[in-house]
Design goal:
Keywords: Calcium. GO terms for molecular function: calcium ion binding. This is EF-hand domain-containing protein. The chain is mostly helical and 105 residues long. It has 5 helices and no strands. The chain has a single domain, classed as Recoverin, domain 1 (Orthogonal Bundle), CATH 1.10.238. The protein starts with 10 loop residues before the first helix and ends with a helix.
Length: 105
Amino acid sequence: MGGKTSKKLSNQEVQRFVQQTQLQPYVIQQIYDAFIDRAGRNGRMNLAEFKQTYNQIKPNYDPYNIYGNDMEAERIFMMFDADRNGVLTFDEFINVFIQIQRGML
């Protein structure tokens, strides 16, 4: 799955995500590092990787509802895969992450 080496986001990228999410720069970098660790160095998270990640970041995850969790993860993945290429980039993933954490999904 993921690679151990992650690059740092450029200052310009960090500032764009700070404006978009209202998170602190160090938090953006931490989320990015975790994303790369799960998605791999190519920075593209497939559905299986997203399902595992989703189960870790969802606040009210129910470990006894595996089928429902998978269906929900698939639905969210498809909603945020903006270019419909079957993978999430960090740009797409950060939107999912923010909305889940803010209880908007």
